[in-house]
Write a structure and sequence with these properties.
5-stranded parallel sheet, 5-stranded mixed β-barrel, Archaeosine Trna-guanine Transglycosylase, Chain: A, domain 4, Rossmann fold, 42% helix, alpha/beta
Length: 740
């Protein structure tokens, strides 16, 4: 049979159509595709086609700065203004530019190409060969369901044009296929390109086989539980059957890497030398005796269980310590010290600001970008199944439409459940029962009650002046000297200088500000040493004033309480104990009460109770009744800071009595307590933090509710010896101490 029968023949006549340039693909005859109309040229071509009687376009690939010599005549099937659905009809050899008919579209003349019939035997044989290649490619890609459609094609030209759908070919390759008009030549081209694609897939399959072998080796060495091993084996078998080009391939690989990176069989050897643990804790942290005792107690229990053959791991044996206290008291660093003392690896799980439940439980594997939760990642980072995990800022966990992370934490922190913790990404059980969890928080109020119920609270209330000085001398100063590049023989800071910084430049519960001020001092010393090879620098109390300027804090109580109507209260905030001054003033106007200072509802009620008590006991208190008919304004300074709580009642009452009797409150007295309408003083919380705040502020007397008598045992002995405590049952007891 003559080969000339396969040569295409030109249909009669030359025609003109608007051109729609294609920059990202090629459309051949018989293909139905959707094209985004996002350029002026495309919009003009679409408009022109819709106005044309035939509703047809010329689809012309534009690659490497040139238009192809062959395009495709296509019919517009549908459009929504932003995209157009077109159906390829026939190839077209492009000619010269045609008339524009007054619009913005580019019009080209073209000569349509019709395939000669019937096809040659050579073309049929080449089509069968290429069909076989396409079926093998589809099978490699896991798309075998499409092979039936491929087998149904009989026209050699349509078989060759299957290559225009291939994701393996470049745009330039597809343009070559479109421009190859001769069917046999086109089939030979796509066979060559198909064999190259198949070779690449076979190479990938060989690499996959190597990956499968590696995963099976990792599984054998992992020591994972039987249920985990079965789940991993199932995924390895899926990977073995799957093409590397399948979207699920990368998902399975990521899952296998995550599961096999978990240290299923690794457990750190734990130290049970209690004396050594105590030495480590004492070396790393000054004070905090209660916290250290609680850690030693927990370790002692584990030691006895181990020595007497009692199973340590398992249900209900874990203890979750919650270290609660103001910033800078050493909660996070204490967790690291515990890990070092126990001989366990340490990892930190930051929970502050977490609002997505998937951060705890992991994402479902079907989501794009899915990954395991923070606890799985922390176990992998620690490299052991029994690490110390620090749950930092657990009081700052939020919740929104993405879920409630605090509810997800319930399973993690419940010793009766966490031996079978299930991460949504892993979908296998993870035993967390051997983990030592230590949580940190600034305040208990924002921790949900069910979550708090699973933790044992250990309070870190802050440091005394003496403890802060010791921390500065023994821990902070050596670290800062090294950090600034100085040598110990080049600078020395005297105890008087440290005391001056503690008293005059810091008034916090922790030591962060103290560290910042010491850092300022040492940086100024470093500047001197770097610019002048001088004698060693000795920083004393006078040098502190020269380097840091005048003291930032002074004895405010003496100044503030020098006039009637001001009383010194004690409060607990998110940064520890603090001193609050309650001010009261009377003025002409409608009788009533004005409150300012961004007070919460409870403090507003305390002010109303204080005013009602004074009005009802005016005679006994020596208050002029005429003064009660004036407008009273109660203000708590630092108005930008929200304030609330029940412990300001006695302070507000004292301030009102002071105002209305004209008697100033003693400058040395601070007070706290809730008051009732009958004048009873009720107990409150946070005694230790409030007393430490009073001590830092230079107060020497503190009025506490009689019901808080036992809480004084928590106050450091040095502070108890330096202060006088008055226990009040009624407001009369408070007033008896408050006025000189």
């Amino acid at each position: 049979m003559s080969d000339t029968s396969s040569t295409p023949t030109a249909s009669a006549g030359t025609r003109t159509l608007p051109v729609l340039p294609l920059t990202a693909g090629v459309v051949g005859p018989g293909m139905v595709v959707t094209i985004l109309v996002d350029s002026p040229e495309a919009r003009a071509a679409m408009t022109a086609a819709l106005d044309h009687a035939s509703r047809r376009l010329l689809l012309v690939p534009h690659v490497d700065g040139r238009y192809a010599t062959v395009g495709t005549v296509a019919a517009v099937e549908d459009t929504n203004g932003r995209a157009v659905v077109v159906r390829g009809i026939e190839r077209a050899v492009l000619g010269a530019a045609g008339p524009a008919d007054g619009d913005a579209a580019l019009w080209l003349s073209y000569e349509p190409v019709a395939e000669a019939a019937p096809p040659t035997e050579e073309a049929r044989a080449l089509a069968r060969e290429y069909r076989t290649i396409v079926e093998r490619i589809l099978d490699r890609r896991g798309a075998g369901r499409l092979t039936e459609a491929v087998r149904g094609l009989r026209d050699p030209s349509a078989v060759a044009d299957l290559a225009l759908w291939s994701p393996d070919l470049t745009l330039a390759d597809k343009v070559r296929i479109l421009e190859t008009i001769d069917v046999e030549e086109r089939l030979r081209l796509v066979i060559e390109l198909g064999r190259a694609s198949l070779a690449e897939l076979d190479a990938d399959a060989g690499a996959d086989a190597d990956d499968v072998a590696v995963y099976r080796t990792r599984l054998a060495e992992s020591g994972a539980p039987e249920a985990v091993r079965a789940a991993v084996e199932r995924e390895i078998e899926r990977l073995e059957r799957m093409s590397a080009q399948s979207p699920e391939h990368s998902w399975i690989v990521a899952w296998l890497d995550t599961v096999l990176d978990i240290p299923w069989s690794v457990r750190a050897e734990e130290s049970f030398e209690l004396d050594a643990v105590r030495r480590v804790l004492d070396a790393d942290h000054a004070g905090l005796a209660d916290v250290k005792d609680r850690i030693i107690e927990a370790l002692a229990v584990r030691k006895l269980r181990a020595e007497r053959g009692v199973e340590v791991s398992g249900r209900g044996t874990g203890t979750i310590l919650a270290l609660v206290g103001p910033p800078g008291v050493g909660k996070t660093s204490l967790g690291e010290s515990v890990a070092r003392a126990l001989g366990r690896p340490f990892a930190r799980v930051a929970l502050g600001g977490v609002r997505d439940e998937a951060e705890i439980r992991g994402h479902r594997r079907t989501y794009v970008g899915a990954r395991a939760g923070r606890f799985v990642r922390a176990m992998t980072e620690a490299g052991s199944m029994n690490p110390v995990l620090l749950l930092d800022e657990i009081d700052k966990v939020g919740s929104d439409w993405r879920g409630d992370p605090s509810s997800a934490l319930l399973e993690v922190l419940d010793p009766a459940q966490n031996h079978t913790f299930r991460d949504h990404y892993l979908e296998v059980d993870l035993d967390l029962s051997d983990v030592v969890f230590i949580a940190t928080a600034n305040t208990l109020e924002t921790i949900p009650a069910p979550l708090l119920d699973r933790m044992e609270v250990v309070t870190l209330d802050g440091y005394t002046h003496e403890e802060k000085a010791a921390i500065a001398r023994d821990h902070v100063l050596p670290r800062l000297i090294e950090r600034t590049g100085l040598r110990e023989d080049e600078v020395s800071v005297t105890d008087d200088a440290i005391e001056a910084i503690v008293v005059g430049h810091t008034r916090e519960a922790g030591v962060r500000e103290l560290e910042r001020q010491l850092g300022r001092v040492l940086r100024k010393v470093a500047a001197r040493v770097a610019t002048d090879d001088a004698e060693p620098v000795v920083v004393d109390a006078d040098g502190v004033r020269e380097l840091l300027g005048r003291p930032r804090f002074r004895d405010e109580a003496k100044v503030r309480t020098s006039v009637p109507g001001v009383a010194t209260g004690l409060a607990v905030t998110g940064v520890g104990g603090d001193v609050l001054f309650v001010e009261a003033a009377a003025m002409d106007g409608e009788p009533g009460l004005t409150l300012t200072g961004q007070l919460g509802d409870v403090m507003k009620e305390s002010a109303e109770i204080a005013r009602s008590y004074v009005r009802s006991h005016a005679a006994a208190l020596g208050v002029d009744p005429a003064g009660l008919e004036r407008r009273v304004h109660v203000h708590v300074p630092a108005g930008a800071t929200p304030k609330d709580g029940p412990s300001a009642g006695v302070t507000m009452t004292t301030a009102l009595v002071s105002l209305l009797t004209g008697r100033p409150v003693k400058e040395s007295v601070g007070m706290t307590g809730e008051v009732t309408l009958q004048g009873l003083v009720l107990p409150i919380g946070g005694v230790k933090q409030k007393v430490l705040a009073a001590h830092r502020a230079g107060l020497t007397e503190v009025v506490l509710p009689a019901g808080n008598d036992g809480d004084l045992d928590d106050v450091p002995e040095a502070v108890r010896d330096a202060m006088t405590f008055h226990l009040a049952s009624t407001i009369d007891d408070v007033l008896g101490v408050a006025f000189a």
